[in-house]
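Protocol step 4 of 5: obtain the predicted structure for the target chain.
Materials: sequence only (see below). No template structures provided, no constraints applied. The aim of this step is simply to have a reference model before the mutagenesis design in step 5. Sequence pasted as it appears in the construct record:
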Amino acid sequence: MEQRQLIITIITVFLLLGLYYITTMPRRKQAKEIKKMQENLKKGDKIITYTGLSGKVEEVLEDRIIISANPDKIKLSIEKWAVAGLDDRNIKE
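Step 4 output (structure tokens):
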């Protein structure tokens, strides 16, 4: 009886570890892709931040970027981690 309980416990642990792995892998992959995109920003890229601010990269610094925000071309300095992605929309400039 004790051996059966041990086997059931081991199977349960493996199932829980598998479920954890399956649920966290897509998030890790997406976070890695976003980090890579943030590190590879260059002048002229159109970006959008997590807060919805969009603009064009004017200058790339070590941990910050200077953007020209739409629609009035106001220059802002933001942290690289705040960039959610590249903005592929056609925004009238």
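Step 4 remarks: The chain has two domains: 1-40, 41-93. Residues 41-93 form a domain with the SH3 type barrels. fold (CATH 2.30.30.30).
Proceed to step 5.
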